[in-house]
Amino acid sequence: MQKTINDLAQLQDLTMAKAQQEASMSGTRLIQLDKSIEAMLKDLAPELRSRFTKLEAKGHIAIVPVSKSNVCSACGMSLPVSLVQAVRQAEKIHQCPTCARMLYYSDSIPRGTGSQKARRGHPPKIGIARFSSESLMIPQITSTTLEGVLTEMCQKLEDENFVENSDTLINEALKREAIVSTAVEHGLAFPHVRGVEGGGLSFVLGLSKKGIKFGGSPKTLTRIIFFVVIPTAASAFYLKLLSGLSETFRSKEARDKVFGAKTPKDLWKTLVKITKTTVR
Ligand SMILES: [Zn+2]
Question: How far does the centroid of ligand 1 lie from the alpha carbon of residue 208, in Å?
Fold first, then answer.
């Protein structure tokens, strides 16, 4: 059953990738994705296929990890210990009694720290400031390879106390890139790790003037990289953030503006300004 569970998790990555490409309005790789999704669905047992499709239609999440504190990471409800044990044994596929999503157990769930939660006495954050901050801006990425860039960005999240351990994060991000590249048009890429436990939806922004080969089309280099960590419960919200950012950066003026920023402070100020109407 473990293989089926892995297949389901991968299938979900593909359907999310498709939703993501649609949100960023990048039509280029949709056909390839559709084909892979179709092939994987065909391999599933009919009963499982219809269960997956039904759940997937309700907000793109069909299979979710059980968190370390034994709660369903989609709906946040506590699960009975006996159920968690059964999920761990993986002899059959179990569902959350509350939200009906299929459950799996994973030892390699990256953990957020939750340290960026609003502190008492601080005004509530609005717009893009809910997801990032000046400390997560990298105006000039030094690495020149995909792995190097991901490492640099994950390290930033760890240094700034957004995640506990960047190693798991890097591995998961590379696995995700291997399924289908997160590079889209206009030199943008949205590498990400889903299913992060604890903490909120957050991103690091890194710029590379020279450009990096990020998979995707071999002709275009990636220059503007948003590395996003996504707690399961924030999946739908992530798509909104993505479509807002894509809308902003379709404009050449916006892309030129961020490259004009020399310091993290400038970059953050610029980003806040140019996303005012697109990320609310
Ligand atoms: Zn649930």
Answer: 40
